[in-house]
Design goal:
373 residues; Beta-Lactamase; alpha+beta; 3 domains; 10 helices; 65% helix
Amino acid sequence: MTDGKNLDGKIKGLILARVAMATFLLGIFIFLQIKAPDFLSQPSISYFYGIIALTYLLSLGFSILSRISTNHRTHLYLQIMTDVLMITALIYVTGGIRSTYAVFYPLVIIYSVLYLGRNGGLITASAASISYGLLIDLEYYRVITPFSHLYSWEVPDTAGHLFLRIFVNIISFYLIALLASFVVEKEKKTRALLAERESAFNQLDLLYRSIIESVDAGILTIDLAGKIKSFNRAAEQITRWRFTSLENNRIQDIFPAWEELYINRDNTGEGVKGRFEMPAVVIHDRHLILGCALSSLRDNSGKKIGDILIFQDLTKAKEMEAVLERNRRLAFVGEMAAGLAHEIRNPLASISGSIQSTGVRMPGYPDYRFCLR
């Protein structure tokens, strides 16, 4: 289905190119006729206009045929063979062997290679060789009479010269077909390789994005100017900021403590090294404490192009640490109270034992235990 659409587009492009070329030739011909009215004989001029008009009509017919035909390759071959015949007719009416319009054969050969590949180019080169050689032979043997050319030179009547002219043109046709097919095949291979590399790059990019978006830690990258260039999903969940609202913003705008930490941690210009905490970050009226790790972001040549910041929300962990610290201190106070009570109870126990062993009664206190209380 895709190949059919491509060939259909090529057919339309070929029709437009033919109309544009015919219009260009018509404009040049009219200009030359105005500047030098006698540069061609009257029959040649009439037939020239007839060929241009026929070209327009054929282009219209090919346009209609392209809408109803499903065999696009046959349609392309039909157009190419028609172009070869039209060029041969143009050569005949403009002087035959003396005409310079044989230069249009290579154009047809080149676009046949572009549209139909090497085989199409070789077939077109063969058709051009047969058409041109047959025209020159018929003219040489006086089977057909060429139209007169006022500014003509004498045509050599030697068979050797005629054979050499035909031979050179035929060789040039095939060389152009082979060179064009070589270039087109190299271009196709390069395009296929590029598409393969692009596909591999897209898969790698997808894998990279999947990994970055799947981790629980927030990841953001900044350039050398401190502007945010990427912000993963976990970073959005932690900070409740959307990347679309942060892209190309300065990191200090959302992390006010960043600049002070970045400057104070390392005065060598390389930024913060290792892990660190960013306390009291105010984001949407929430106070957060982030555990961060900063690394340099470098290109393939090792040149620093920015920084990558990986962070996690430590707020709950810090709150739990505060609770544990408070409980530890309360437990320590309890231990101190128990130790103090123990230290006080020991002397009292000694006094109680001494009184009990002596059996002394205090006046007004018949029971020594009540006295101890």
